[in-house]
Amino acid sequence: MELRHLRYFVAVAQELNFTRAAEKLHTSQPSLSSQIRDLEQCVGVALLERDKRKVTLTAAGECFLQDAQAILDNAEQAKLRARKAALNNDHLAIGFVPSAEVNLLPKVLPMLRLRQPETHIELASLITTQQEEKLRSGELDVGLMRYPVHGQDIEFIELFHEPLVVVLPVGHPLSREESISAQQLHGVNFVTTDPDYSGELSSVVNAWFEKERSQPNIVQVATNILVTMNLVGMGLGATLIPGYMNNFNTGQVVFRPIKGEAPTLALLMAWKKGELKPALRDFIELAQRPLVEA
């Protein structure tokens, strides 16, 4: 029994007419009749009753029709899934936060393109919460993101930790200092980030100030790190952000290291649990290589 036997039988069962079914299948009526006889011989029972006036299904035929339709539907879905899998194997969707754009992707992407020259690489700048959502839905293959990670179906590793630095408006009294302590920021106007948009940055900064027994004066909450730095440049206050942001400095702010042990942010690489496509396996390996070679 082959799928063509099932297709022929379903066509006859739907048309209840061999001539119309043959036209629908683009085959001859004798060939169709022969295929139906072969199918009935294989099944071992009559599936159709025929006379000169009409064609009807037997009780066995009614039962067989349901299973035949289900098998054909499953076969079509299997074909579509296989084609989709083949297409997906040639596509890698990468989500990233700005840190990865500066510190990781410029090193990894050239190596990945050498290994996977036929793979279409899609890059998407997304906040951490959006990345996790898209990893779970399958819209992203891998995310370069921050803590926290909520889903139990997400695998992740820490790639590196980035120390935070103090950012001040040009001309701020503290800008004359070579490094700045938490105590020096006590009572200073401060721009913080919204935890819904900035991953763990807000909680790390708050924990550091609490540990150091210092409390800045929060004057503004920003939705992302770039906005935070721009607000500082407008003179609203100081902030703590990762040092890589100096790459986006337009000259309106100054960066100063923290005195003593600085708080850090982890950059994570995350992906959904399960079988990994070849391009994703290569990316995971290569993303860790700069750390070894650094």
From TrEMBL:
GO molecular function: DNA binding; DNA-binding transcription factor activity
UniProt keyword terms in alphabetical order: DNA-binding, Transcription, Transcription regulation
Keyword DNA-binding recorded: yes
PROSITE patterns (alphabetical): HTH_LYSR
Residues of the HTH lysR-type domain: 1-58
UniProt-listed SUPFAM superfamilies: Periplasmic binding protein-like II, Winged helix' DNA-binding domain
Presence of the UniProt keyword Cell division in the record: no
GO cellular component annotations of the record: protein-DNA complex
Top-level taxon of origin: Bacteria
InterPro entries with a match to the protein in the record: LysR_HTH_N, LysR_subst-bd, WH-like_DNA-bd_sf, WH_DNA-bd_sf
Family recorded in the similarity comment: Belongs to the LysR transcriptional regulatory family.
Name of this protein: DNA-binding transcriptional regulator HcaR
